[in-house]
Amino acid sequence: MAKPRKTSAKAVDVADSYAVRLMQHLVVPTFVIDPKRRVVIWNRACERLTGVPAAEVIGTTKHWQAFYETRRPCLADLVALDRPEQLPEFYSEYAARGHNGLGFSAENWCVMPKLGSQLYLAIDAGPIHDEAGHLIAVVETLRDLTDQKRAEMALKELATKDGLTGLSNRRAFDQMLMSEWARAQRTQKQMALLFVDVDHFKLFNDRHGHQSGDECLRAVADVVSRHAVRPLDLASRYGGEEFALILPDMECDAACAIAEEIRRAVMALRIAHGAAGAGDHVTLSVGVASHIPTECLFQNILSRMNRL
């Protein structure tokens, strides 16, 4: 039986040198850190992607500065530290591919300080071990998905925005309502719903025409949107001349005050109406509900509000 051939130190050095040269010339942006998280390779494609020369990061732990304005770990750091539990803290989309040497994958918006513009990057980071199983390096590769992500966001916006008013559409309202209803059930906090209806809108359209009707709806939408000021508030066009507001963590008195502000603000616009059976100016009817959600309330509230 032939004996296993020993690899000479010279052959190993040649292989290592070849691997380094190969990595330097990869078209995929790549960098490598050692177990102490110091950069040992920052290839040319990585220089082009980040605008950061290799000389600025080689031998340092400052690779994060190429991607972020404040100090935080890159994906390679989390692999080196074996911290899969921190992935949700730092990445919007991620996958830990187990503890068997396969590393992590993630996607995230990165600030890219040297470029002065954000990039959406797909990131893969995997460990390299020696024959004894000890970590000797972590390789991180990067793919720029900014154009694809922006196209995806634009399509999503088209699917969730009302074309006439720019508010969220009924689909977005229904999705947000289900999400916030479930959250309020878990936290046992009140949430408020406002349903806004333009009074005698069909008569307005018949008298003034559809173009004026569209202008009226846009004006009302502008007023409604100005009252969705907190991060989770949602103003939407519910359908036709109806608008709706989701106001999480809000009690009835506060919601009623907002409803009155909206009603008065539209009256102050003094949009001429004058059709038979209507007043001189456009007015609103606003329905308000505020509850700690339960399952039986969900359909009941929607049914009652739709009848207002």
From TrEMBL:
Protein name (record): diguanylate cyclase
InterPro entries per UniProt: Diguanylate_Cyclase, GGDEF_dom, Nucleotide_cyclase, PAS, PAS-assoc_C, PAS-like_dom_sf, PAS_fold, Rev_trsase/Diguanyl_cyclase
Keywords: Nucleotidyltransferase, Transferase
Highest taxon, organism lineage: Bacteria
UniProt-listed Enzyme Commission number(s): 2.7.7.65
Molecular functions per Gene Ontology: diguanylate cyclase activity
NCBIfam families per record: GGDEF, sensory_box
SUPFAM superfamilies, sorted: Nucleotide cyclase, PYP-like sensor domain (PAS domain)
Gene Ontology CC entries for this record: plasma membrane
Catalytic activity, reaction form: 2 GTP = 3',3'-c-di-GMP + 2 diphosphate
GO BP term (any one): regulation of DNA-templated transcription
